[in-house]
Amino acid sequence: MDTLRFYVATVAETLLRMLPFPTRTGLYAIGRPGPDSPVLLTCNFHLTVERVKRALRGVDCWLLVANSRGINVWCAATGGLLTNHDVISVLKTSGIEERVHHREVILPQLAATGVEAKLIRQKTHWKVLWGPVEAKDIPGYLAAGKQKTAAMRRVEFPWLRRLEMAVAWGFPISAVTALVAWFVWRAALVPLVALVWLVALLVFLAFPLYERFLSTEGVHKGFIVFDFGQSGVQVFLWVLVMAASLLIGQMTGGLTWGYALRWGLASLLVVVMVSIDLMGSTPIYKSGLHEDRLLSVRLDRDLCKGAGFCEDVCPRDCFEVDREARKATRPRADACVQCGACIVQCPFDALSFATPSGEIIPPADIRTYKLNLMGRRIKAAG
Amino acid sequence: MTYVLMKVLESAPSRYDKGIRLLTRGGVDAAYDWLCGHVQPGQRALDIGCGTGALALRAARLGADVVGIDVNPQMLALARAQAERQGLAEKVTWQEKGVAELGEEADAAFDVIMSGLCFSELTPDERHYTLEQARRLLRSGGLLLLADETRPRDVGRRVLHVLIRLPLVLLTYFLTQTTTHALPDAPAMLREAGFEIDEVRFNRLHDFVAIVARNP
User: Fold this and answer.
1) Are B123 and A20 inside 8 Å of each other by CB?
2) What total of structural domains would you count in chain B?
3) Is some CB atom of chain A closer than 8 A to the CB atom of B132?
4) Domain with B111 in it: what CATH number?
5) pLDDT tens digit string along A225-249?
6) Could you tell me the residue range of the domain that residue B143 belongs to?
7) Residue A139, C-beta contacts closer than 8 angstroms, at least 6 positions apart
């Protein structure tokens, strides 16, 4: 029964992955937990909760589901929808404090962009441990005495995840396409829907082939095609495709207003899908809409005391802490995705963002002002 | 879907007030004015989820000493700026705090507790906890003033509510990126928590409720 529910949720919520699916918040008992059992916390995106519960089969523990407005951990934490307050709230109002003797809660590592371990401890006396990125690694993490391997800290984009994202794109776009086609071009409904799925699958499954062109460094704002709304390349592309289809129409003698409209819509669909820039659907490349992908992380070596929180929370494994010198280093800085988790967690404020023009965004701003859908931090009340 | 809208809303706090006014068709101002009519000069008032300070500033203008708490620093910045413009900065203390931190306040510290469009944003556990804390924080005989969106109970009004609300939700979202949620049966919720209900006022469509409740 549980298995069936899990698969139904997986299919339905992958098709509609772009929408939030809130589920019950509060305390869940997994297995037969006691007063010394570990306490884990996650978001209230339904699919996440189902996956965590499934990953924890055979483990006796407490699961706290915090209010992330039905959105997944990473997006919610980075977008200010899974905050310190939501974590404090579930710790204080769920009744967990009466159930366990200890005060140690394991949070998903990806929540580190929005939840401050230091502040949670000050306000609630709960110690925050950053667990693995993936729920499936939790049993291994617990068995190893709450130690993470480097692999458990890293966010990857394997083919299964890419397929998931392709479906998440393909379904809503093809549904809208089918609706429009029903009215304007019924004969081409099936081929158009197939085209949408094909483009979606191609864009995501071929990702490793063109990933290296998606530069996020310096002035290159990304591979030109994947630059939605920045340079107008897609408009140029569309005009080109349109001109070609009109020419073909003219030559075959089938050129009418209806023909131009239909081929115009069909080609626009493909151009938009290709240039929509993966819209933040990958964990390793930021949408062109997000200005923060041009930021770089600055490490102030004088302030750094080598505490290692950065290494613990970095999903791209950029950091390495020199335990002798008690200093952090960033040997793999080019893998950074500007999530800001390291900056938020550093207890000494040794890390900050720098804009391409050299302006420094201090840690306090990054902790307080979260990214909105357009990838901006609205600071001023304006 | 409204959750998606909420995400954007939080990023446009300066438009929040306008959006709420549009969504409640002006009902929010009337309800807040009526509720604050129960506040006396010199009273100690707490505004839970004060947002941009709509209730807190009204109470301060009437001479109360107000503490406003909210989880959103951007909203609080707006509230603070408004208080200064209106010369009320001395009368209100703004704190970035969630309801889960109400446990820190002293027993019977307040004569009045107010909350507008906040309970509908809370989880059931949070609501329960907040009302428990509100009982503790209010002196005996103190008032709880609550205003929130609700769902009409009769079918006719419910249909009407949906018909009117749907375009308004869309319009409000496009103009201001703001939306609200509905609170299930609020008077029953307060009674269950041990409050005595003094007065309940609905708007004509029964989709906005204002309640004056008393801590026995």
Assistant:
1) no
2) 1
3) no
4) 3.40.50.150
5) 444 445 566 677 778 878 888 888 8
6) 3-214
7) A55, A56, A58, A59
